[in-house]
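User: Predict the structure for this protein chain, please.
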Amino acid sequence: MATVAWLALGGVALSSCATAGTTTAAVSAATPWEQGEDAVVADLLSRMSLERKVAQIIQPQINSFTAADMERYRFGSYLNGGNGGPYGDEFAPADRWLALADEMYEASVRPLPGGEPAIPVIWGTDAVHGHSNIVGATLFPHNIALGAAGDAELVRRIGEATAIEIEVTGIDWNFSPTVAVARDDRWGRTYESYSEDPELVARLGAALVRGQQGDPAGAGYLGDRRVIATAKHFFGDGGTEQGVDQGDVNGDIEELLALHAVPYPAAIEAGVETIMASFNSINGTKMHGNRAMLTDVLRGRMGFDGLVVGDWNGHGQIAGCEVDNCPDALLAGLDIYMVPDDWRGLLESLVAQVRDGTVPMARLDEAVGRVLRLKYRAGLLGPEARRPSERGVAGQYDLLGSPEHRSLAREAVARSQVILSNDGVLPLAPGARVLVAGSAADDVGQASGGWTLEWQGGRADQLPRDRFPGATSIWEGLRDAVEAGGGTATLSPDGSFATRPDVAVVVFGERPYAEFAGDLRDLVLRDEEGLALLRTLREQGIPSVAVFLSGRPMWMNRELNAANAFVAAWLPGSEGAGVADVLTGARPATGRLSFTWPATCEGRPLNGPEGALFAFGFGMTTGETSRPFALDEDCSALGNPEDGALVYGSGRLGQGVSAFAARIGTAGDGELLPQMRGDMSAAGVTVRGHDRAAQEDARQVTMRAGSRFGLIQDQDSGGAWIVAYEVLTRPAAPVRLRVGEGNQVIDLATHFAHAQDKGWREMVITDQCAPALGQRIAFETEGDVTFRISGVRRAPVPDGTPCSF
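Assistant: Here is the predicted structure, written as structure tokens:
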């Protein structure tokens, strides 16, 4: 291992450790280390340059900087975004994550001239339901499921197991728990909330903090097998108007605090070291720039002494701010800017603003001091400081997805299942012939939801089974349990069978999503695969059990009418056997709704028990039975497709849409690009995320000479092709758009040349220039070109509408 320089305090010279695998710090009696954190922080601040201080409050993502940048600038922290992985590989094995942790750490502590202290960096990650960025890690149920389990000790144990798996890969800091009080199920982050009840959220959030960090009064606090926790997002993220992510929260401030801020004092009492600012506004003021909340309330009234970290470019949403220029956030009380890509510009502007007095040095020192204090508490500044690979259980890869952790996850899955109806078909009878239907039954990705290996997650076509070594799908869990009981189980996604089953289990639900991509206008599940299967089985006289995978309660009247039993399984994660445990009666059904279940489809803010089909706290026991339902199936929203014409938008592909890249002239569609991202080197196409209005809600497409990039619908939805685009480079060779199955060619070179550096534009392709619009479009180029796409949709236009660019 490379020679590493270690931090010495109190003016003692830095020394280097020349022995691979060992680390020691040069500490003498002159050091203030034993005098406590205040003395350590004061000493470090007195010896840091302005540039190094500013770098401590800058947090870039691993996709946008290198170890050389770390050595030069000395960032205080960094993160991996939801689609980021070490060395450009988001599916990299665990040892590559640990290798990058060491590489960045060593770059951060190399000696600086003039005796300036070299301060270790820390790495933050979103491990929101287990260490969910890592192939092979345990994937616990999402928070909404843990809310249904309702057991703080269970949540504490999950926090402890998650911290262990995080430390295996050398990461220091987890951006979890989310302690939002979700009050409108249309919000795309509802599954990150434990409950609509603030007291339950407070209890479970505090438990996860203790599980990750340890007992703040205990000897092992933030020691081995522990990581720094983050309560997020302060505050009001679960109360936005119409459930719009990053939207507006309005009302009397004391009433809002009494609801949405309740979990924070509990997290602070549990010792949470960091709190993340929210994207949303409170009465028109963005939280990242809200001094009254970040400073007066959080620090003054609540007594929080840790650090406040921003969310992904959230400071750039403050009125008058840009992502690379925003003193307002620091002045409001933010201590760390999460600035994934534009870190260099922000660092330069902040240095200038301190020099010209826009930002007082005292405020900068306060923020940097909080960063240093966190590192002190985590043991990174003292004589026992070690590189990531030498801490605790780092490198013990057998702990990732260990049998103990998978057993804990299975327990959590079973305890979170909520039986909403049962005419006696549950538990499944021993010896029964069981048909398991639905495409989700054998899909670990769909059962795990968003924040699973990819930011938006993915189903089996995007995240194939080999991405989940050691996991158990719901089908596999049922097969093993049914066979152990003397029965037979058959997997048939489409519900067909050769031998008539005694009972069928239909697994269906929402496709994975994260954040704003999951926002809904109503609570209708428009994927009717499950409904069709349940109705077909009923017509054949075969009893059925509906297992519904979702990140929120939804309007399920039709499915409840069609099924003999209905189970809200939430997003259980990697241990589908926990679902089977409840269905077969191996474990009792103890889950209870932590959210009210809606009787109507429209979706609205929670305002009491009226309109509830099932009340908060409802859940049937294993042997309890209910009468068949005859629920109202009328829903005006059913006539308004949510995304039937969406091809690409909000950072994700629409239903039944694929993206591909290939060389011009090659047969077929070449390589598929799940989530419309990736480096298709052989095809000459690179597609990466870009922030237009929100995190990675657009894509930047770089096409090299002779490449082809396109989108395909599995069904022609009709209407014109409408593309929101921005051209970054003037094409130096022909660029074409091929439309439809007939490969109608449209020359784009002139249009792209005129559009360069003109900002976002809209391209409308109608039958006036492409008579057979078909199911696909493909860009082709004979020279290098770079452009961005933020949306592609199909929409009807008046007859005779010309094409426009």
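The first strand starts at residue 4 and ends at 6.
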